Amino acid sequence: MRCFNCGAVLTENDFCTNCGEDVRIYRRIMRLSNMYYNDGLNKAQVRDLSGAVESLRQSLKCNRNNIEARNLLGLVYYEMGEAVAALSEWVISKNLKPEKNVADDFLSDVQGNPTRLSGINQSLKKYNQALSYCYQESFDLAIIQLKKVLQMNPNLIVAYQLLGLLYLKNGDYPRARRTLERGIKIDKNNTQLLSYLQEAKSAIEESEAVAVGSSRKSGHKTRASSESIVYKSGNETIIQPLNTPEKSGSSAFLNILIGLGVGMALMWFLVLPARVRTAGNSAQEEIQKVSNELTEKSADIDELNKQIASLTQDNTDLNATVEKLSGGDGLAEKYDILFKAALNYVQNPEDVINTADMLKSLSNEATEGDDAAGLEYSEAFTALYDFLKGDVFAKAAAEYKDKGMEAYNSEEYQTAADNLNPAFELDPTDDSVLYYLASAYRSMEDSDKATELYSQLVNNFPDSEFVEQARGYLRNGAVDETAANNNGNGNGNAEAAGAADAAAALPDINALPQENTATQDAAADALQEALNAQ
Amino acid sequence: MIDFEEELKKFHPSLEVEDAEDHIHNTDVIDVVDLMIQLAEARRNEE
Question: Residue A230: what are its φ and ψ, rounded to 5°?
Answer without folding.
Answer: -105, 125
